[in-house]
Amino acid sequence: MLSQTYAQQLNEVLLAFFFWLSAFVCLIALVVFVVLAVSVFKLITEPAAARRSLLTVVLLAALCVHNTHAEAPKVPLGLDLYMPVPESNPLSPDKVSLGRRLFFERRLSRDKSLACAVCHDPAKGFTDTRTVSEGVFHRRGTRNVPTLVNRGYGSAFFWDGRTSTLEEQVLEPIQNPLEMDMTVDEVVAWLRHDRHYRAQFRQGFGSEVNREDLARALASYVRSILSGDSPYDRYMNGEEDALSAEAREGLRLFRGKGNCITCHVGPNLTDERFHNTGVARRDGKLTDPGRFAVTGKDQDRGAFKPPTLREVARTAPYMHDGSIATLVGVIDYYDRGGNRNPVLDPEIRPLHLSSAEKQDIIAFLRCLNSATREDRK
To answer: 47-56: long-range contacts at Cβ-Cβ below 8 A with a sequence spacing of 24 or more?
Structure first.
């Protein structure tokens, strides 16, 4: 009799628990539905406000399906809340911490003089201010060092897009004889002999040091390098005085007469596609095949991926070869329509900007700087 009463009470407790659990789930679903409905309404009536509402929906959805084994980087204002992280390498503080240590590790290079952070210096917008890169033993590279800010949002890597994931990209400089000039096997071997690194790899991945986890750790740290919350972002978020009158006019020209937005679009201000802007064409000759070396397609000769414009005022010199020293030079180059060639992007044409208009665009570009964040966990 006592056993039967106990079973009945237990049954009532379980029923009550599942009732309130179901009610809670339904409440969350209702909130998401209401916010979604408001977002759709704003999409129709207030396009500018719609983006913020839709991002709210994404945030709520993320809270509902939060994975306790992954931790997304803290996203600054202006960037997408969603970052495409591969399922095989979910972010975690331990991986990011290990990746950061490896990023600053000079023993990744043949002569122990070079770390990733030497060419991608945080103090210089994760570039090195050189025309082209300089590797071990002072070997001269062939292209300018691109910034690493917001590369977690990228879909193609290097100027020519020869890799499609950060996990592939991060190992290439280690193996390039003009950069760090090591083999991955050599790097893995000495990491296995370092007890501190062995402990960190076990903490982050639950395994001994290996090629795949070396790539995953470095890629995880790069995903934590973010630039946002700039004066431009604050202006777009409703803070009217975040931009000066000149910068606001520059933004208007950037979107209109300047035609910059054709390639530099979206939260990260790059379309991640490939364009022939004529920079690689000099004296009638192609100085760098660009994307053609990857695809073999004639239309890709001399085509390169537009870099993000985030931190652009801090990442001179410009273009894939570092051939233009200043933002003034960049604006002048595009104003005259670039260097003509058979496969020049049709969007590259003379702009006929006045001196005042050029200065306004530069004033806007300077408002894309911010306090770049990198996870130090």
So the answer is: 52/237, 55/80, 55/81
